[in-house]
Design brief:
The structure is a homodimer. By secondary structure, chain A is α/β, with parallel strands linked by helices. Chain A folds into 3 domains: about 5-90 and about 290-395 and about 405-475, Rossmann fold (3-Layer(aba) Sandwich); about 95-285, 3-Layer(aba) Sandwich (Rossmann fold), CATH 3.40.50; about 480-509, no CATH class. Chain A has helices spanning about 10-20, 25-30, 30-35, 55-70, 70-80, 105-120, 145-160, 180-185, 205-220, 265-275, 280-295, 305-320, 335-350, 375-380, 405-425, 450-470, 480-490, 500-505, and strands spanning about 40, 45-50, 135-140, 170-175, 195-200, 230-235, 250-255, 325-330, 360, 385-390, 400, 405, 440-445. In chain A, the strands form 3 sheets. A 6-stranded mixed β-sheet of chain A has the order 1-2-13-10-8-9, with helices on both faces. The first copy, chain A, is globular, with a radius of gyration of 24 Å.
Chain lengths: ~500, ~500
C-alpha cells in the first residue's frame, strides 16, 4: 500500500486547479443534478450530494484522488485484518461486529449477551432483591457513553411506536462531575436497576469513580441491594473488571475496536439488546453491515461514504473551510450528533502539514433555524451543512394544522433550507442580502428504523475512515488526550506537583 | 455616537501590529499573570484571562479599541433607551428585566407573574379538573425555548439540594418534529400540567402547531381537561394569543426584548418562578443585574464582559480563528451552552467586510475530554476555549475515591486542560507532540447558585453586545432567518410553488 500526504498527490493538485474555475452552485444545482447525484448509503438510506455543485469532471477528479490514495484497497485491507491502526500497530476490526460471519470473537460475544438479554427481559434473571429489572444505567465515558446513548435515544421512540415489550428505561452516567450520578440516582429505583459498567481497560478514572459513587449511595439508601450482583461489565479480557465471580456477568471487547467505533460491539449491544431485545439490535447491526458493503464500491459516485469524505476534503483543503454542521431533522437524533462530534474530531483531529478534520457542530432542525442558522445564511464564512431527514416521523402521531401535518412542515423546512443556502437572494441592503452558493448534502430515508440508524452509524464511521486514508493520518489512536490525563493526576497530588501554572489555577478552586 | 468598521479604527491597526510581535503564551503565562489578570463577572463569578497571553501593552491597546468604538458610551445609551437596534429602529431593553427599577413595564409584568406563580405553587390556582399542578410544559422555540430551558436545568439541582418546595417538573416542546410533542406528552399527566405558550408575535408556526398537537392529544386522552384553562401565554400585547378570556392568564413581553435576550423576562420568568418560586428567580435576576453593573466599568481590565469580547475579537480578526469552544465543567450547564450558541451566532453572525462571530460549539467537561479534545490539543487549527468551573458541586453529594472527591477530580481536570493547552509538550514523534500556545479563558465561582447562573447569562449577553459594538454590526435583528421561512411556506404549497430546486428536493420526502 502507498501512503502519500494529501497534497503530494497528483489528483489533489488537479482537483485544486479544477476547483478554482468550476462554475458556481447556482448554475450547477439543477433538477437533473438533484436526481442524478444520489448514492445509496444503506438499505433505505440515500446520500444526495448535488448541493455541493457537482460536475462530471469533479466526480472524475474525486475518483482519481480516491484511487491514488487507494481508499478501497486500504478499506479491504482493514476488513481483512491488516494493520490499519499504524500508530499502535493494530488491526481495526469494528466492522466484524456487524458482519455476517458467525465465527468471530465479536459474534461469539454477541451470542453471549443476546442470551443474557433474553433472560433479563423474560424476568429469568432478577435483581439481587428478587425484582424484575426495568431500568438500565450505563456507566461509561467517551465511546462507552456517547454512541450507546445515541443508539438508545435513537430507537426508543421507534420501539414505543412498534409496541416492543418490555422497553427498559435507559439512563447514562459518564461525567466525573458528582452532580451527574447524583441526579441519575435520584431518578431510579436501585432494586430494579441493572448497571452496565463499560471500560475497555477497566481503569478509566471517571467510570470507576462513578461506580464507587453509585456503590456508596446504594449502600446507604438500599442496603439490601448487592450492587455487584446487579452489575455487568463490558471490558477487555484480563482487565481489573474481568471478574465473573464479582459481577453478574462479564462481556468482552478488545483492542481492535476503538471506543468511538464500538457502538455495534458489546459496548452498545448489551444495553440495546437488553433494553429493546435482540431483534431490534440485530436489525441495527444489519443496517450497519449493509452500509459497510456499499462502502466497498470502487465507483465514488455510487459510494456514499467515500463521496461524502471526498467532498468534505474539498471543503477543508481546497475551499479552506475549517467547520462543518450536521443537522438532523429528527428529534430522536439529538444525541447522535454528540457521538458524531467524537467520531469525527477524535479520529481525524490529528497533526498534519495541512488542515484535517473540520470542527463539527450540530443541533436538530427546526430548532437550530431559530438559533444559529442566522449565521449560516448571512455570516461572512460559509459553513457546509450535512442534513439528515426522513419521510415519516418515528412515533407516527401527528396533527393537521393549517392544511399540513407537522412532519410535512418539518421536511418543507428542510428542503427550504437547502434551497435557501444554495440560491440565496440579493438585496441592495447588505443586512437583507443572502449570498447563497452555500453547500449542503442530504442523507434521507423513509423512517428512522433500527436499520437506518445502523446505516447512519456505519456511514459516518466509514466516511471518517476514508478521510483518514485521504489525509494520510491514523484515525484510530488518540495521543492528544494523554497530556491532560497526566496533568490532572498531577493536580490531584498538588503537594508533589512542581508545575507552577497548574498550582496557580488550582488555587481558584 | 461614532460608528466605525473595526478595521477602520486606529486602535485595531495598532493592536494588529503589536500582536504580530507579542511574546508567546508559554512566556507570558506566569503565576503572577494568573493572579493579576482576573476581573469580576458577578457577585461571586470571576473572569480569568491570563490564558490568552496578556501584557500591559495589550491591555492598553484593548482599552484604546474599546474607547475608540465607544463601547461603554454605547452601552450607556442602550441602557438609557437609545436606538441600539438600528436596523429595526428600536430600543433594546432586556437589561430592564433585572434592573432595580420598579416602575417599568417589565417590573410590573414581573409582579403579575410572581403573584400568579405564588398561587399555582400554593395550590390556590388548580387545574381544570381541580388538581394541584405539578408539571410545567413550556412550548416555545428559539429564545422562547433555549434560554428558559437552560435556566430551568441550570437550577433544578440547586433547588433539589436546597430543598425548595414544591419543585414543579419542567418539560419543553420546541421542534416542529411531531416526535417531540408526542414524546413529551407520553411522559406527563395532562390533569396536573400547566402549559406555558411563549411566542412574542403569537404567530410562530412551530409553537402554534405544537399547541394544536397538544390540544388534539388531550381531547382524545383526557376529554375532561380544558387545555386553555391550563394554559398561560407569554406574548406581545395585541398578538393573537393576548386573550385573557381564552387562557388562564396572559403575561406580556414586547419588541424591545429580543428572543435570545429574553430569559430574564416573562419568557423565562413565568416558568422559573412557578417551578422554583419567586425567591429563586429573584436571585437569578439579581445575579444578572450585578453583572450588568460591572459591565459599565470603563477600565477594560476590570470589565469581564468587555475584556472577554475584546480578546475574542483578537482571536477572530487578528489571529483569524473562526471558531470558539465554551466548556463548562458542570453537568447542570449542558443546556446553557445551546442557549449560548443562539446568543452568539444569531446576534453576531451578520454580514460584514471582515470575520465576525466565531462558530461556537461546546459540551460539558470531563465528557468532552473523551470526545473532541483530541482535536483541540493536536489538530492543526487552534480552537480557543472558554472554560467555566465551580469550587463546589451543585447537589453536594460526593464520594471519596483514590484519595479525592469527584469534585476535586473534576476541577483538577479543568486546570490540567488549561495548563496542557498553554504549555504543550514537545516530542520528536509528531503524533505525540502537543504544540501548546493554545489560548483559554476561565469563568469561575464558588457554586452554580441562582445568582451565578444569572451572572453567566448576563456576562455572555453583555459580551455579545460589546462585540456588536466592536464589529459595528446590529446584534439585535435576525434578517438571515427570513428566506428559509418564506421558502418553507412555499414548499408546503407545492402545487403553487415555482421553484424547481425546492420541488426536486421535496420529491425525496
Amino acid at each position: 500500500m502507498n501512503y502519500f500526504d494529501l497534497t503530494e498527490t497528483e489528483a489533489f493538485r488537479k482537483l485544486s486547479a479544477y476547483h478554482k474555475g468550476k462554475p458556481g452552485l447556482k448554475e450547477l444545482l439543477t433538477p437533473e443534478a438533484v436526481r442524478k447525484y444520489v448514492a445509496p448509503a444503506g438499505k433505505d438510506l440515500f446520500f444526495s450530494y448535488a448541493g455541493k455543485g457537482i460536475t462530471p469532471e469533479l466526480v472524475q477528479l474525486c475518483q482519481s484522488l480516491a484511487d491514488e490514495q487507494e481508499c478501497i484497497a486500504k478499506y479491504r485491507s482493514l476488513l481483512a485484518g491488516g494493520i490499519a491502526n499504524r500508530g499502535e500497530n493494530r488491526a481495526v476490526l469494528h466492522h466484524q461486529c456487524r458482519s455476517a460471519e458467525t465465527d468471530t470473537f465479536y459474534a461469539r460475544e454477541k451470542e453471549k449477551f443476546y442470551a443474557f438479554s433474553d433472560q433479563v427481559r423474560s424476568g429469568a434473571i432478577k435483581s439481587s432483591t428478587g425484582k424484575v429489572f426495568d431500568t438500565l444505567v450505563q456507566i461509561g465515558i467517551g465511546g462507552s457513553g456517547l454512541g450507546p446513548k445515541a443508539l438508545y435515544k435513537g430507537l426508543f421512540g421507534y420501539c414505543q411506536a412498534e409496541k416492543v415489550t418490555p422497553i427498559l428505561k435507559g439512563e447514562f452516567i459518564s461525567n466525573i462531575d458528582p452532580d451527574e450520578p447524583a441526579s441519575v440516582l435520584s431518578r431510579i429505583n436501585p432494586e430494579t436497576t441493572l448497571f452496565i459498567l463499560v471500560t475497555k481497560s477497566g481503569t478509566t478514572l471517571e467510570t470507576l469513580t462513578n461506580y464507587a459513587f453509585v456503590k456508596e449511595y446504594i449502600q446507604k439508601k438500599c442496603p439490601a441491594v448487592s450492587l455487584e450482583k446487579q452489575t455487568v461489565t463490558v471490558t477487555a479480557a484480563g482487565s481489573p473488571l474481568d471478574d465473573g465471580k464479582q459481577f453478574l456477568a462479564v462481556f468482552h471487547i478488545d483492542d481492535f475496536v476503538g471506543g468511538r467505533f464500538s457502538t455495534t460491539s458489546a459496548c452498545g449491544g448489551v444495553l440495546a439488546a437488553t433494553a429493546f431485545g435482540r431483534e431490534i439490535f440485530g436489525r441495527f447491526l444489519s443496517g450497519a453491515h449493509c452500509s459497510d458493503i456499499l462502502a466497498l464500491n470502487e465507483k465514488v459516485e455510487e459510494n456514499a461514504a467515500l463521496m461524502d469524505a471526498l467532498l468534505e476534503v474539498i471543503d477543508v483543503n481546497i475551499r479552506r473551510i475549517p467547520v462543518e454542521a450536521v443537522i438532523p431533522y429528527s428529534a430522536a437524533l439529538a444525541d447522535f450528533v454528540l457521538h458524531l462530534q467524537q467520531l469525527y474530531m477524535e479520529s481525524n483531529g490529528k497533526p498534519a502539514p495541512y488542515a484535517t478534520c473540520p470542527v463539527l457542530f450540530s443541533a436538530v432542525g427546526t430548532d437550530c433555524q431559530h438559533s444559529f442558522f442566522q449565521q449560516l445564511h448571512q455570516g461572512p464564512m460559509e459553513v457546509p451543512v450535512e442534513f439528515i431527514g426522513f419521510r415519516q416521523s418515528q412515533l407516527g402521531t401527528d396533527v393537521q394544522y393549517k392544511g399540513s401535518s407537522s412532519q410535512a412542515k418539518l421536511n418543507a423546512n428542510l428542503v427550504a433550507q437547502i434551497t435557501a443556502f444554495a440560491e440565496g437572494r440579493s438585496n441592495a441592503d447588505i443586512n437583507k442580502c443572502f449570498p447563497g452558493e452555500r453547500a449542503t448534502t442530504l442523507l434521507y430515508g423513509d423512517r428512522l428504523t433500527p436499520e437506518n440508524l445502523g446505516s447512519l452509524f456505519a456511514h459516518f464511521e466509514n466516511k471518517v475512515m476514508f478521510q483518514g486514508f485521504l489525509w494520510n493520518i491514523n484515525s484510530y489512536d488518540q495521543e492528544g488526550v494523554k497530556l491532560g490525563k497526566e496533568l490532572a493526576a498531577s493536580a490531584l497530588d498538588m503537594q508533589n506537583s512542581d508545575n507552577p501554572i497548574l498550582k496557580s489555577y488550582y488555587s481558584f478552586f
